Input
Amino acid sequence: MATSTEIQAAERSFQHHFASIEQQRDTATFGMWMFLLTEIMFFGGLFCSYLVYRHNYYQAFVEGSQKMNIILGAVNTAVLICSSLSMAMGVRAAQMGNRKLMVILLLITIVFGFGFLGIKAVEYHEHWTNHEFPGPNFHFETGDPAHPATDPLHTEIYFGLYWAMTGLHALHMIIGIGLVTWLVIAGMRGAYSPIYYSPVENVGLYWHFVDLVWIYLFPLLYLISHKHS
Amino acid sequence: MARPEQPHDDEYTHVVPASLYISIWAALMVFTLITVLASFAELGPFNIVVALLIATIKGTLVVLFFMHLRYSPKLTMAAVIASVFFLFIMFSLTMTDYLSRGWATFAGR
Output
């Protein structure tokens, strides 16, 4: 049960224009969902351009995707799934009022988040040194340079989408780590209780959403086809 | 789950059992392995169908359980379904353009 200090803290967080603390919580969570739905459309535009160019230049996309490190990509998928588990368990600890467990689980989530970004940085470095970044230094060869199997300009589009989509995703990861850090600090100060934990719940929703985006990015960018043309 | 300090489900909110979260995590890990292995099978045009099907199963598990959609008000469920619907409108209207280019021929072109 919530202690009297927790009830006092929850009363301080209760805003007068809500009918009840439950209504306040439902409103905050619905607002977070509304934000995440705009995020779906935000990433959706990039997924849509991916769809158009993959349809137009399928073979060039296959060539580009074969430069991806599938093992690092799969490990990163697993790291994100683990971070989602620790986040979900952290929210659960907040719901049960177990402050210490919540802080530990959120710290584990941050560690997984940095692990993901570290592995991503290794991949980015590899692509950068291989001239697989779109722009004047982009260089891509398939087969005989005099008779390339695909137009390198089309593979450049693949890498443009790769950097834009994974880069936007990585930016969301960095913001997510910042938000979870804020939860850890506020949580250690005793800001949350089983009555009031909306920030934990809603940052959790954000974190899982970022995981969800990666669940689609991984097969679409890394696993197009392994068949060599 | 006999923790005396745990609030009742209906008193504050729905607390999902830890074992369910761990089962979802295990399912997501298994599906990740399956999607990598499936990509090495030559299924022609069905490779992308299998990959997207597995991703959608994983995504549905994340949304329903990790994001508590299953335990949320019906309004939230309606908003999420509407969002996916409009995402597909964006995809399909864009592709009606790109897929149909070159279908029609006009005199003088």
